[in-house]
Amino acid sequence: MKKTAIFVLTALAVVLLLAADQPKIPPMPAAVAENAVVVLHSGLDVYSLMGIGPKKTWDDITNKVYVLSLKSGKWADSRPVPGVAGRLGASAVGVRGKIFLFGGLVVDGHGNEMTLGDVNAYLPQDQRWYRGTDIPIPVDDAVIGVDHDRYVYLVGGKAKDGPVNNVQVYDVQANTWSQATPFPGTPVFGHAGGLTDGMIVFVDGAKKNPAGGPYVASDECWLGKIERKDPNKIEWTKLPAHPGPGRFAIVAGPVEGRKILFSGGTLVPHNYKGLDAEGKPAPLSEVTFAFDGHGNRWETIDENTFDVRSDTRGIVSTPIGPLVVGGMLSNSAFTARVLMLSKK
């Protein structure tokens, strides 16, 4: 049977598992936010890795891994990420049939945070984790993307002494790191974006307050074009403002059609409990928008996104559409639900 026919039949089987008018996908086994999300096997297996549960306490940070098979429409536990503690703000991508998981932070019982440089790779067929070479500058809450099914880009993020503008490149084939052209803007973390067809786009995030005190929102938007012959050379261009008021922890990722899709996020920076600098729940944006790489322009997808989210690390592209897995809701509660977004 031809690959196209297999894909159509698989997608049809998945759709038949969903409601006709308002497609619904089963929720994860547990509510979680700040989870890394990735897909494998042509988007048919969706993974949620680590994050924090609804108690929002240091001991509710988990190293659990859940996997949704779109063929069966069911979630299952997968092998947990190694280590004695779970992490927040880690980043993950699928490369060559493996999951690569980078960085993140751990929190102790006194509320102290420590950013880690761990690189963990998972082989689903063997249910086995192994360590890669640590990140040169450990970061959490970075933007991540993969190019040529080989080079993983970690853009910005929060390091030990605060946000950075480094672009760190991991060669999964050689298990080595290099430094690419840093973006020329203000160092940030909690920004959102992705990589598609040699193009990196990211927006917003949190930056240091020039006057001191809590982090403040950034409104910078950047486009980076990777040189074809040198993965470490990036031409950066500042973009105009994007649609919508979201500024921190927007959910984002590449989708078909050379687009980067963005949804939700909060209007101001917040902590892992969803509270702003004044201890109040951070308000969410309801806008879903995209950057169209063909036309080099922003487009508004939905101004009133149903069940909008923040604080889940990645929109994943699947045969049934872009999915948002878990995350934080408008009332600062964490959810196990899976949201399907429109991409047009």
Describe the structure.
The chain has one helix at residues 3-16; strands at 36-40, 45-52, 61-69, 74-78, 91-95, 98-102, 105-107, 113-115, 119-123, 128-131, 143-147, 151-155, 158-159, 162-163, 167-171, 176-180, 192-196, 199-203, 206-207, 216-217, 221-226, 234-239, 251-255, 259-263, 288-292, 297-302, 316-318, 321-325, 338-340. The chain has a single domain (30-340), classed as Neuraminidase, CATH 2.120.10. It has a four-stranded antiparallel β-sheet, with no helix packed on it. Strands 5-6-9-10 form a four-stranded antiparallel β-sheet, with no helix packed on it. A four-stranded antiparallel β-sheet has the order 11-12-15-16, with no helix packed on it. It is mainly beta and 344 residues long. The protein has one helix and 29 strands. The longest helix has 14 residues, at 3-16.
Q: Helices, strands, pairings?
A:
Elements: H1 3-16, E1 36-40, E2 45-52, E3 61-69, E4 74-78, E5 91-95, E6 98-102, E7 105-107, E8 113-115, E9 119-123, E10 128-131, E11 143-147, E12 151-155, E13 158-159, E14 162-163, E15 167-171, E16 176-180, E17 192-196, E18 199-203, E19 206-207, E20 216-217, E21 221-226, E22 234-239, E23 251-255, E24 259-263, E25 288-292, E26 297-302, E27 316-318, E28 321-325, E29 338-340
Summarize the structure.
With 344 residues, the chain is mainly beta. It contains one helix and 29 strands. The chain has a single domain (30-340), classed as Neuraminidase, CATH 2.120.10.80.
Instruction: Identify the CATH architecture.
Output: 6 Propeller
Shape: globular
Q: Segments where pLDDT lies below 50 for 5+ residues?
A: 1-7, 15-22
Helix and strand succession?
Answer: HEEEEEEEEEEEEEEEEEEEEEEEEEEEEE
Binned strand content: 35-45%
Q: Count of DSSP E strands?
A: 29
Our Rg estimate from Cα atoms comes to 18 Å
What kind of sheet is the major sheet? Answer: 4 strands, antiparallel
The total count of helices amounts to 1
- Structural classification: mainly beta
Give me the CATH fold name.
Neuraminidase
CATH class: Mainly Beta
